[in-house]
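Why does residue order matter? Because the sequence determines the fold. Keep that principle in mind as you read this record.
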Amino acid sequence: MPTFEELVGSEAGMRTYRSLAYWIGVLKVEAPVAGLKTEALVDAMTMFYDVEEQNFRDEYGEVDEFTDAYFTPMAPVTLTRKWCPFDSARKWLGDPKWEEVTHEGFLDSVAALWTQPEYDVLDSVPAFSEDEAHFRFLLRLAVHRGVQRGDNILLICRPGWCFEHAVKNPLLDFGYSALEAGRLYPERVPSGSFENASPITPVPAAF
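Structure:
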């Protein structure tokens, strides 16, 4: 599965892009997965990134027909520092049932779907960075919810955006309002990344 470097695709891209955005969550088992397209999923993620910074939950409205109906992310669109979560997802969940890489300009995007995830395997392999540990935290939430409901796990990612901007501009109330939409963590980055801030405690939610 692609690394951050492979998604960026060039030394010039590595100098330009320092962050990656991903969406991790549960996809209802009744979702029509035969028609999944990475390009459409990335477009939905991009639209939600903008919506999450501007609106509270009751103002989200209908953003994307497919994700609105079938997909529940565990957090707002999440950012990393030159790191892609797909290899970590594979080491914890195994090979995906579906995977697609799309090419747009000199950047690639990727999405993948896992069925019948196993919760216990998430503690069998350690995490080696803050970004990876935070991804495992969100993945554990997704797998727990997926096992409870019989749903699948969907992961979408694309290089771009800015991790440092998210650190300096936390979602705050907008992030906490996202909990009403089924998210289980209210920010785009790990709580330890915020300077001079107390760690964020996710609000308990029913699975």
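The beta strands are 19-27, 71-73, 78-81, 98-104, 107-114, 152-159.
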